[in-house]
Amino acid sequence: MKLFQRVLYGWLIVAMLIGAGAPAARAQLSLPNLMQQKVTAAPDGVRRLGAIEVAPVRFEGRELFSVVSPTVRDRNNPGNLVPVEVRAELIEAQLKRVVSPKPLKITITTDDPPQPPLQLPRPQSASSTDFDPRSLRVYYSTLNGAIVIFATDDYHTKPLKILTITDQDADYYGLTPEELAQQWRTELDERLKRSLEERQPEQLLLQIEQAALATAVVAGISVGLWLLRGLVKLRDRVLAERQAQSGAEPMPQTEVAADGAGRQAILAAFRQQFTLQRRRGLLAIASWLLSSALVVTWIVGASFILALFPWTRELALQILSVPFLLVSIWFASGLINRIGDVLIDRFGNVWEENGFFSLDDAQRKSLRIATISRALKVTKTSLVIAVGITFALGLIGIPVASILAIGGILAFALTFGLQNIIKDVANGCLILWEDQYALGDVIAVGAATGLVENLNLRITQIRTSEGRLITIPNSAVVQVENLTRNWSRVDFTVEVAYESDIERALGLLKDVSQKMYDEPYWRERLIDLPEVLGVDALHHSGMLLRVWIKTRPLQQWPVGREFRLRVRLALEEQGIAIGTPQLTLAAQNEHSTREENRSHHPETDW
Question: Which of 42 and 245 is assigned the larger pLDDT?
Fold first, then answer.
């Protein structure tokens, strides 16, 4: 489970790095061969509308407007056509020139006397940018029959051409070229002036003050969340220690299940574990929310600080686009996973308290709930992580349909190599559905016999009486013997000598059975009065007497040991001998044997 979570976190971190290092419209990945775009397909961020293509023009991370160009069918050979994305990039480059820093003025001194200037030089702007924000003017004019938008100020002799409005642009917006030019001119004039003012030294000081205040607020919130998370972790650590202590107590095994433990000890241990696990599940949700709030605080704080400065505003918007959505997927996946654990535990608790399945006794139901809960949690975690990775890959540019198609192909290819795992999972589902055995049952699979300590959809782990942990794939469970399903039985046999009074011996067994059944301690472990069947066989060593003792699950071993002890003492007290093997030897005289042979064969010469 933890391995799957690490894989998901790794994918999300890689995707965040990819998304933060590229523009939002171009933060895309493509799979080789299978995912390559065809030559006729439009690039990312370009919309194809029949004979025209539309691309957005962005400035400082925000979209200003969209430009239109004729459709280019083959990007490798565009001919005389200019792809629309190239036109948009040229416009963005001209806008960046307007707000670029003022170029350094290099003065070269020589030994020659200075020459008088031919004309008066233009005054230099006091602005730190190439264009002056106070005198910037954005206007449009007709040039060679086309409407062109220019930018100039009092300190540039030649205006800067920003873009040319085409008929396709006007038709796309449903305006005349002059109306569209006026609309774009107003928007560019306002946006460029604001951007230039933000790049001046006095504004920079104000931005630094705001960034320092935001940093202090983020730090204060982070410290508070970190302290709360520490308290939750401390409480969870205390519960984990209690859970470890309760789980460290040895559980009754196959032949040592007596000693006052039995099924009740197993149920008590499971219930205590489930109670602690439910409480830890709620703490896990609280810890996850605090951790996620801490991460969100850092991301939002970093984005806010970066958005204060015009040079990093585009990066802030990129962080709030793809990486923030990836963090949201990571947060949602973890939260759903933990809420799922709590809901499964809650469902098990309701199942146990209300008894939806009346055919199961309380003990059996508790064990079955524990088994199904563990299997459901593993399956649920796998599904949540798989869905989270699918959404994350789709967010960074890999189509979900292609992911599912490739996953289907890989699953089909892996089917041949992972047939045993598929059989394990299928058989594990049948084991849980049919309730063949559960946690706490003592089973025999082949030559292995032990207590079921772990059961999921793939494997079954049993602990033998010698303490060995045996792992069995569920596909190998062809025939299983459940020694503790609903009830158990002691098959007691004893041989008494032929010289013994058989009626007296049977009466003694009945007396021992009745006395043991009447005692409260053993009455709780017995379901019915032991049944004395009678003489079951006659051997050369004696007469075999059989008694069946029906007990509660896991109680056949302590009951059997106690009953054998009492029978042994009672037989000794009543003087009834245990059967022993008997051997009769017949010996004859050698001389008489020869005379007997001669009488039978008188013609033989001895």
Answer: 42
